[in-house]
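Run log // design_07
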């Protein structure tokens, strides 16, 4: 939906919109078109940044992690070339200059489309005028799920520990020193 279309819809949006931040707290939303973005990856972050500072629009970004991860360099963290902090930035820091953007930590369990609401794990309910689902993608084994045992996915900082353990830590198989020739050359 274009920015002008969002603004047109904002004029007809109910000024009494509210959404809960916890099961006991309700935050009274300011006037304007409410865009709820689920996912703080490249897509969700791009939407929040594009709408950041726009008049008549307020944005809520919900992600299950508090950081944006630059996944193309994740393999370098797994092999200890880079530190995790060099490829992970706090979402609030990246969107800090956008006064109309709020970042919430949460995991969406289901979407109630007729009521224009999402339900978070823990019972919270967030309403919206426009919903952007930018939850990312998974890796593909091109119809060969058996490849997963040999080529694990690398999408999160947690996955990098498993990858680092596989490629860098000793296994129960022959040790590297047992495969090298000894001093006598044999």
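design_07 sequence
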């Amino acid at each position: 939906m274009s920015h002008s279309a969002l603004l047109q819809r904002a004029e007809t949006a109910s000024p009494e919109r509210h959404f809960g931040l916890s099961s006991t707290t309700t935050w009274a939303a300011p006037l304007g078109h409410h865009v709820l973005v689920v996912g703080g990856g490249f897509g969700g972050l791009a939407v929040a940044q594009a709408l950041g500072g726009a008049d008549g629009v307020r944005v809520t970004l919900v992600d299950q992690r508090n950081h944006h991860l630059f996944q193309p360099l994740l393999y370098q963290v797994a092999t200890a070339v880079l530190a995790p902090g060099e490829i992970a930035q706090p979402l609030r820091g990246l969107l800090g200059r956008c006064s109309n953007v709020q970042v919430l930590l949460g995991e969406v369990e289901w979407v109630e489309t007729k009521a224009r609401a999402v339900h978070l794990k823990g019972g919270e309910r967030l309403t919206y005028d426009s919903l952007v689902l930018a939850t990312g993608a998974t890796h593909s084994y091109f119809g060969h799920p058996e490849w997963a045992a040999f080529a694990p996915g690398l999408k999160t900082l947690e996955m990098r520990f498993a990858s680092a353990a596989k490629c860098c830590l000793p296994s129960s198989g022959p040790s590297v020193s047992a495969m090298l020739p000894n001093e006598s050359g044999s």
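Residues 1-29, 175-182 have pLDDT under 50 and may be disordered.
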